[in-house]
Each structure stands twice: as structure tokens, then as C-alpha cells.
Amino acid sequence: MLEGKALIEDTDMPVKMQIQAMASASEALDLYDVLDYKSIAAHMKKEFDKKYGGGWQCVVGSFWVFFTHSKGSFIYFTLETLNFLIFKGDSSPSAA
Asked: Where is the signal peptide (predicted)?
């Protein structure tokens, strides 16, 4: 496991899921090269889909994003030099 500590920037996720997200990121960084964002994100998405049901999305790297998510299902944090965003998409229609 990496020695770095994750810093939560924003979340509405239950604490147990927050811990799972950060542990999953740390595990992925141990398994993949730090620049292999695609594999890191895929690893985290697959873990969340398996543990909490399908529909999870994961973004890794340096990015700006605007998205809609299901209540209680999003976390944005940094670990080492990377930003991480994991959320479950909201299927309800957007207001016009």
C-alpha cells in the first residue's frame, strides 16, 4: 500500500464507502503505473460495481468535470499526485 494519505475534497458518500474508494485507489496505484489512468479507473469502477451494484463511473488524473449523480454516491479526493472522482450516475431526467 502507498504511504500517502488521501485528501477528500468533496463527498456525499457514507463513510464506509469513502474508505472503500480510497482503499481501492491505493490498491490500484500499487497494481498499475501511476500514469496508467485508464487501468486505475477501470479497477476502481469494477470494485464498486461488484460491491455496490452497477452504474458506477470513475475518473482519474487531472481534470475538470460537471456531472449529475445519485444522492449519497459521490466522492472527489486526491491521493499522491492524482485526482479521483467516483460516482453513481443519476438516471432521472434533468430540469430544462
From this structure: none
